[in-house]
Write a structure and sequence with these properties.
Helix content of chain A: 25-40%
Shape of chain A: globular
Largest interface: A-B, 61 and 61 residues
Number of strands of chain A: 16
Number of helices of chain A: 8
Oligomer: homodimer
Structural class of chain A: alpha+beta
Chain lengths: 302, 302
């Protein structure tokens, strides 16, 4: 077991040695202890009984932490996981001091170790924090989408939250060609989201993003845009069902998440093209929103 | 980390020491090594990208192994996991030699350790084997069912297989009163299964069990009954959609799984009662099937 060296009490040494231990994402903090492993009886592993947050880390800070924390709280309540805020804050502070200053942090909150069986015995939750460098981008200027055949089932109890039952995304990802992100429809054929980001489209007058009360993950960057940045520009944003035809006919499309910020969409493979080599965002409405985001959070500059 | 003592090479000592290590279910074999932990980067934990089988262990054998193995193969193909049969057989043999002779074995097959992100890189699968004693039974003669409000969403790609995305069952289990098993309907209101077993009902002429092509887990005991034991009795069994009203009006109902065998259902709380204190299976058709099962597999005697 390669974590053997980590299992001795590191005490105050941890700040000194952790950058080497954590930089490859193999190790992290599990309930405040440097570890690379989790119990076989953790309910996150056995049932996906848990949540995660993937957060941009910039200059030793998590710029969108309050949004992440709120979504985590909502998800924990939905899944019957008792989130201990002071513990979480302490573990997070410890990780921020130990991890490199820039990149991303993945937070995993599981229902913890319990006896076998679906019934939850209200044991302590488990808190995992891992550092990862920012993922590489196929094209820094824009993403290319491919329509997935796999469609998202409806589940109003689980819609919106970032739980650990992610076979929908795994099956959709398995369809994708190299260099493409996936566009996911629900079982009714409406546009929901991209594989790990939310979508916004501009119809010539206003911004539209799909309603996520039956499926999909309600991203924190989506929330920031809807509640703050787009209204602040004096523009309108509407949350509603989005038919594939409306998406294809949109004037502009972008995807967004809390790690990469906003990325314009170049095309939907074989169906639509919004950005050519010559028009790179010239006169695009999305440029104003990107400027606004970078003004508020400079780490999201391309 | 409490598995520290396990991580040294046990070599041929393992047979001697493992009963002590394994009987509490905290430890198991991970890819053939005695371990209590799994990597933080395992896709089973992060996405539920994996499968499990919970198997009755009797006199050092797994009586329904061929059925379990076939379901596992189907599931692995569905999830893009490369199941290495010789490896699995070797790990299983090792576990059977090390574990106590009676109880149950939980087999977890995950997509293994991979880089962060939904895309599967075809890394080696991970094989986990754990021993557990048989779970206690609230009432050895019959189970009591409670109708769950949570309904199972449809997903034809995942229906039938025993994957690790089990929040449906976790949410349904959270509704249950002490001493009750859950009866699960799908989003259309049809009966699908109990929380961790399949259901059969007798309409006075034939046995009926719900079709599972849109949701539910296709249990191996269900398969044994449908393909072998019930036809061998000269009785008819039909796999079809089952409305809740048909279920309530059934003459007899039982649940079955590969750990507990067949258990008659006493009641559906507040809606139906099939067994009273006075009629305990007297003249019930189910008794013939139970006799047939115990004849073929004596470990399933009550």
């Amino acid at each position: 077991m390669s974590s053997l060296a980590l299992s001795f009490d590191l005490g105050n040494l941890s700040c000194m040695v952790t950058p080497l231990l954590f930089i490859d994402g193999k190790s992290g903090f599990v309930d405040g202890k440097p570890e690379a492993y989790l119990s076989l009886n953790d309910r996150g592993l056995n049932y996906g009984h848990g949540l995660f947050e993937t957060m941009r880390l910039s200059a030793g800070q998590l710029p969108l932490w309050s949004y992440h924390r709120q979504r985590l709280s909502v998800g924990a309540a939905s899944l019957g996981i008792a989130l201990d805020r002071p513990r979480l804050d302490a573990y997070l502070q410890q990780a921020l001091e130990a991890f490199p200053a820039d990149g991303m942090i993945k937070l995993l909150l599981t229902a913890g170790v319990g006896p076998r069986g679906y019934r939850h015995q209200s044991q302590s939750a488990c808190y995992v924090l891992q550092y990862f460098p920012l993922p590489p981008v196929a094209d820094p200027t824009a993403v290319r989408l491919q329509l997935c055949e796999y469609t998202l089932p409806h589940n109003e109890r689980l819609a919106g939250i970032k739980h650990l039952n992610r076979l929908d995304q795994v099956l959709a990802a398995a369809e994708l060609d190299e260099g493409f992100d996936g566009l996911l429809l629900d079982v009714d054929g409406n546009v929901v989201e991209a594989l790990s980001s939310n979508v916004f489209l501009f119809d010539g007058q206003r911004w539209i993003t799909p309603v996520l009360d039956l499926c999909g993950v309600a991203g924190v960057m989506r929330r920031l845009l809807c509640e703050d940045l787009i209204p602040r520009l004096g523009q309108q944003v509407v949350i509603k069902p989005v038919a594939l035809a409306s998406f294809i006919n949109a004037r502009e499309v972008f995807v967004c998440n809390s790690v990469r910020g906003i990325q314009p969409v170049r095309e939907l493979q074989g169906r639509a093209r919004w950005l050519t080599e010559s028009n790179e965002l010239q006169g695009f409405e999305a440029e104003k929103i990107i400027d606004q985001l970078v003004h508020a959070y400079p780490c999201f500059a391309a």
